[in-house]
Fold DUF3078 domain-containing protein.
Amino acid sequence: MIKKTFLLGFLFFVIQNNFAQIIRTELPDSTSYWKKTNKIGLDISQITFVNWNAGGNNSISGLINGQFLRNYKKNNIIWDNELIMRYGINKQEGQGARKTDDQIQINSTFGYKKDTISNWYHAGKFNFNTQFANGYAYPNTDLAISKPFAPAYIFLGIGAEYSRKDLDLNVYLSPLTQKTTLVFDQRLANQGAFGVEKAIFDEFGNLIKEGKTVRNETGILVTNQWKKEVYENIILENRISLYTDYIHNFGNIDLDWQLQLGMVVNKYVKANIGTHVLYDDDIKSKVEENGIQVTKGPKVQLKQLLGVGMVYLF
């Protein structure tokens, strides 16, 4: 069932791209109801020290990111689709390359309203999240603490969305959303990583039953996204997602909040300042203590970024 859900979601995203191409082929540009945006960015920073008395380590870091939008709007129907990809690394003198960012995200929302006046839509939303490469609790690189599809998250639900394209604003409210957590790595699944049911061992450490690789939850999902030019060429963008499960610890909220301030230098150069806050009580933190990887309780995860780089729109 889970594999079918993921496959349907993937086909849903692929088919809409083909459908969009068909519409653009059959209709003149003036009557196309699709809006297409492709954005690719590259941020690079580098520090080199030569006979520098104050000391320091040479380093270089890079972040490549892409955002691809395919949005449809006609009369009472909207269909918004988004693919986000990010990958960043840092290399310091004397140590190997370390990952600083890693994300694959697909968002798709279909909405219908009864008339052309209201901004409220009956809506269905699909969201998928995973990563490109293994994650580690540095400096330990022997055992990965996360991998592609370990975890992966799928949200699929129905609700209502308030959408104002003229304000770059939407609010989505869903009383019925299924959250599926995939951990397609048996070692991590046996540990009970990311909230899946962990393996059962006997008193001698022998495996009796393997951990589950899939966990399903049903709950409430609230999301908000808006973007505003707060000053000339300075754009503030906010994304937040709140989820709570009806059965397991109702009221304990999973948080995913991103806030980014973009400053446009010219057509191809842009500076970014941003934060990303995550909290999920099913995700246990891992730390290195005396060369041993130790699992702790859930913690607020915080990522902050500051970068200047190139951006290309097409």
Summary: Residues 1-8, 10-15, 18-28 have pLDDT under 50 and may be disordered.
